Amino acid sequence: MSEIRVSDWTELNEQLYQNAYNEQIGRIRSSYVFRGVSQADYALTTSLCRLGGDFARMEQHLLRNFRKYAPRKGQEADSIWNWMALGQHHGLPTRLMDWTFSPQVAMHFATARLDQFGADGVIWALDFGAAHALLPKTLRDEMEAEEADVFTVEMLQRRAKTLEEFDALADEDFVVFFEPPSLDERIVNQYAVFALMSSPEAKLEDWLEKHPDVFRKIVIPAELKWEVRDKLDQANVTERVLLPGLDGLSAWLKRYYSPRCP
After folding, report:
1. 3-state class of 92 per DSSP?
2. From the centroid of its chain, how far is CA 243?
3. Strand, helix or coil at 143?
4. 12-24 per-position pLDDT tens digit
5. What is the pLDDT of residues 81-110, one digit of tens each?
6. At what angle do helices 103-110 and 225-234 cross, to 10 degrees?
């Protein structure tokens, strides 16, 4: 694993945009996704895992009942991947994990909690192109046929209609990154992408330990958080934009007008 502890705003941005230039097209087209966390020692665990108990066995029960009770509006395509994305978006414990294509969005989530400004934050940067090169052949074939960099729910549905089919695609763990449908402005504004492991019990951190070349861990020192936070606010990367609605507006105003802690 490559862990980098940045010293200032400039170095942070240099690290986040490292290897972003695509020589083939002469444009900035990063193959990285990012996840910002307010505490550097916080584990990369899914909401399903954090449920505790026999969480793997609970996955099907959670999804079945979510599909049964949730309104059908916007779910004309009765796909397990649509339902899982919708559930994750609304707080249902799933094996999905939230990531973003945007370095600034990741910076926001690493510095959004004032009560954790005494702790180092972290941004995980993961090369999804390198991760997808390790996928089972049927999934790589789907990406090649679509000439796509990440999956959509439709692409996943063509290769696996159920979680059982998906989990059986390979004997070894793998990770897929897919863009959820544009369920609302929050998904769009956060430039969201989900990480999907090949088993409810599979842990992304364990997978990363076996593939240290595909990611970097960029540590934001506690003493740098205020500068990063204030510059993001000036750039309008705030709760008001990323969490549209009165809740996000209130969260932004509360944080923005809070006094700076010593």
Report:
1. coil
2. 15
3. helix
4. 999 999 988 888 8
5. 999 999 999 999 999 999 999 999 999 999
6. 130
CA 191 to chain centre: 9
Closest by CA position to 57, among listed 163, 195, 135, 132: 163
The pTM for the full model equals: 0.93
CA distance 227 to 246: 26
Q: What residue spans define the domains of the chain?
A: 2-256
For residue 252, what is the enclosing H or E element?
helix 246-256
Residues in a beta bridge with 33: 126
191 Rama class: left (phi>0) / alpha (psi -120 to 50) / beta: left
**37: Cα within 13 Å, side-chain hemisphere:** 18
- CA 240 remoteness from chain centre: 20
Task: Kindly provide the b/e burial profile for residues 160-186, where b requires at least 16 CB atoms within 10 angstroms of the residue's own CB.
Answer: beebeebbebeeebbbbbbbbbebeeb
The whole-angstrom separation of Cα 213 and Cα 176 is 17
Tokens coding 257: 């007008």
